[in-house]
Amino acid sequence: MVRKDRTYSYCLLTYNQSKTVAAAVKSALDQDCAAMQIVISDDCSKDDTFSIIQQTVAGYAGPHHVVLNRNQRNLGLAGNIDIVHGLSAGDVIIAAAGDDTSHPSRSRQIMRAFETDDCLLACSRAVVVDPQGVELQGDFHKATFYQGWDLAKVAGSNSLYIGATGAWARELYTKYGAFDPAAYEDLVLGFRAALEGRIAVIDEKLVNYCLGGGITSSADYFDDLHAFKAHRAQSYVVASAIMRQRLKDAQTYGLEASSAVWAVIRKAQTRAAIGLSYYRGTRGDLFLHALRHPFLVLDTVYSERRRCRKMLRRMRKRAGGRQ
């Protein structure tokens, strides 16, 4: 039965985003929808992000109810999300980040999607910009949900939707619980929604999403190969955390361990372990993986070496352009 009585909380998560946070807050206050709660939670920024938030909301007299929070210590993304779940009252969390801006109609369209599709997670497309606000060209909508949500494909995917566009039902969080601190919310909550088979994709660009700022970063923004390699190693830490969480969530849902979905997740776990051994382990670690999974090791090593060569070419091209 489709629910028409859901309540909504727009939750803006911030951390060290003093240059962009005022615009993010203003876009939250400017949402042209029914009155809702707006929770702004700063994760103990080291800069003046929180004071800018306070200045921006001062004197606000619009329809929405604003709640401000500053964590006493840095909790990380997963921890801050857990905080806003405790502070917010809505049945649905409309998520936003301090370096992105939402179009005025975003919340209204998300509300419509939940009311008409009875989804547990809704996402949209986005205008992708660089840290200077210049729109980037390219196909940024190759993520799985923009093509469909076959569960086996979702289980192995490391790109489900543009996370900055997401909104989820509180029950999607409470049923499965808080998630691994190293995991990203879109890759966890998206899988949970796919397990339940209740996803809505709004075919409009409702967010200006900054690529290269915040916790996300494109390969185009690295000028040092060592930093790029550290980034790749960390990506495998994240992948390991995501797959651990997906196995746990599949078990909570009641998915049979013999299903193809479990096999997909376990293979992705193995690849993540191999990738981490490649960047942070010893030759002995990689050799042990090669004994058990020779083709997977060869494929992973080849892929990472190709990435590094591509990164070097980009670095040289940028260096030449600056001369």
Keywords:
single chain; alpha/beta; Spore Coat Polysaccharide Biosynthesis Protein SpsA, Chain A; 8-stranded mixed beta sheet
Task: Explain what the structure shows.
The structure is a single chain. By secondary structure, the chain is of the alpha/beta class. The chain folds into 2 domains: 8-210, Alpha-Beta Complex (Spore Coat Polysaccharide Biosynthesis Protein SpsA, Chain A), CATH 3.90.550; 223-322, no CATH class. The protein is built from 11 helices and 8 strands. The protein has helices spanning 21-29, 49-57, 76-87, 106-117, 151-156, 170-176, 185-196, 225-253, 260-280, 283-292, 294-322, and strands at 8-14, 37-42, 65-70, 92-97, 101-102, 121-129, 167-169, 199-210. An 8-stranded mixed sheet has the order 3-2-1-4-7-6-8-5, with helices on both faces. α9 (260-280) packs across α11 (294-322). It is globular, with a radius of gyration of 20 Å. The model is unreliable at 214-219 (pLDDT under 50).
What Rg do the Cα atoms give?
20 Å
Number of distinct beta strands: 8
What is the CATH domain class of the largest domain?
Answer: Alpha Beta
**Amount of helix:** 40-55%
Record the strand order, biggest sheet: 3-2-1-4-7-6-8-5
The CATH architecture name of the largest domain reads Alpha-Beta Complex
Number of domains: 2
Brief overview:
With 323 residues, the protein is an alpha/beta fold. It is 48% helix and 16% strand.
Set out the fold topology.
Elements: E1 8-14, H1 21-29, E2 37-42, H2 49-57, E3 65-70, H3 76-87, E4 92-97, E5 101-102, H4 106-117, E6 121-129, H5 151-156, E7 167-169, H6 170-176, H7 185-196, E8 199-210, H8 225-253, H9 260-280, H10 283-292, H11 294-322
Parallel strand pairs: 1-2, 1-4, 2-3, 6-8
Antiparallel strand pairs: 4-7, 5-8, 6-7
